[in-house]
Design brief:
This protein is mostly helical. It has 14 helices and no strands. Helix 11 runs parallel beside helix 14. The chain starts with a helix and ends with a helix. It holds the Pfam family ERAP1_C.
């Protein structure tokens, strides 16, 4: 990938290498593949190839997704749980039909209190339903945020809100980032989530930071959070 980014080889060569990993069982390897595909998706979101790279993601991640399934198997280790969350999140964001349907079903049960999602599955399910959701999905997520007793759950929700796609809902998330509902040290995570969520999100987050620069700068002064904000 480094060679492709430097223009030394074609990105097609990178994708061919990635295809060779479909039977890979190791979480660390998949995490690296996922990160690199994320970089490619971000670059290609400005081109006509964006939809095609999503199809590629679905093709590469489907076999491991089917093997892992949604529920833990006896004797599984911690890395298997991490891998399941990573794979389902990747498939869900890419719009894999079966993953999206199951995520919506489990999300509904979770919200209604019928079957609470395990901690490992919450982020991938939240990301999936938001990415392909509407204003009622966002409202439900904000309600879950308000009701959450644990800061860990609030942070989990804050990190994924930026997955929402519609411009007016992206603005709603950015406004929420500066509200009293979000701790000042967590505002950057919400804005960063928007910036990393989509092409529309990146543009909106950049404009939002510029429009609210004085407030953000005064809030963080010379601390590490201001540099993190600029970086995302």
């Amino acid at each position: 990938l480094s060679q492709a980014r430097a223009g030394i080889i074609s990105t097609v060569e990178v994708l061919k290498v990635m295809e060779a990993f479909v039977n890979e069982p190791n979480y660390t390897v998949w995490s690296d593949l996922s990160c690199n595909l994320g970089i490619l998706s971000t670059l290609l979101s400005h081109t006509d190839f964006y939809e095609e790279i999503q199809v590629f993601v679905k093709d590469v991640f489907s076999p491991i997704g089917e093997r892992l399934g949604w529920d833990p198997k006896p004797g599984e280790g911690h890395l298997d749980a991490l891998l399941r969350g990573l794979v389902l999140g990747k498939l869900g964001k890419a719009g894999h039909k079966a993953t999206l349907e199951e995520a919506r079903r489990r999300f509904k049960d979770h919200v209604e209190g019928k079957h609470i999602l395990s901690a490992d599955l919450r982020s991938p399910v939240y990301v999936t339903v938001l990415k392909h959701g509407d204003s009622s999905t966002l409202d439900t997520m904000l309600k879950l945020h308000k009701q959450a007793d644990m800061q860990e759950e609030k942070n989990r929700i804050e990190r994924v809100l930026g997955a929402i796609s519609q411009p007016e809902l992206i603005q709603k998330v950015l406004t929420f980032a500066l509200s009293e509902e979000v701790r000042p040290q967590d505002t950057v995570s919400v804005i960063g989530g928007v910036a990393g969520g989509s092409k529309q999100g990146r543009k909106a987050a950049w404009k939002f930071v510029r429009d609210n620069w004085e407030e953000l700068y005064n809030r963080y002064q010379g601390g590490f959070l201001i540099s993190r904000l600029i970086k995302v």
